[in-house]
Amino acid sequence: MALDSKIPAGHISKKWTDYKDHLRLVAPNNRPKIDIIVVGTGLAGAAAAASFGEMGYNVKAFCFQDSPRRAHSIAAQGGINAAKNYQNDGDSIYRLFYDTIKGGDYRAREANVHRLAEVSGNIIDQCVAQGVPFARDYGGMLDNRSFGGVQVQRTFYAAGQTGQQLLLGAYSALSRQIGLGRVQMYNRHEMLDVVKIDGKARGIIARNLVTGALERHSAHAVVIASGGYSNVYFLSTNAMGSNVTAGWKIHKKGAYFANPCFVQIHPTCIPVHGSNQSKLTLMSESLRNSGRIWVPKKKEDAAAIREGRLKAVDIKEEDRDYFLERRYPAFGNLVPRDVASRAAKERCDAGFGIENNDTQEGVYLDFSSEIINKGRQTAYAKGNHNPTDEEVIKLGKAWIEEKYGNLFQMYQQITDENPYENPMKIYPAVHYTMGGVWVDYNLQSTIPGCFVAGEANFSDHGANRLGASALMQGLSDGYFVLPYTVSDYLAGEIRTGKISTDSPEFAEAEAGVKSQIDGFLNNKGTKTVDHFHKRLGHIMWNKVGMGRNAQGLTEAIAEIAALKAEFYRDVYVPGSADELNPELEKAIRVADFIDLGQLMARDALQRNESAGGHFREEYQDADGETLRDDENFNFVGAWEYQGDDINNEVLHKEELKYEYIKIAARNYK
Question: What φ, ψ does residue 113 adopt, rounded to 5°?
Answer without folding.
Answer: -70, -40
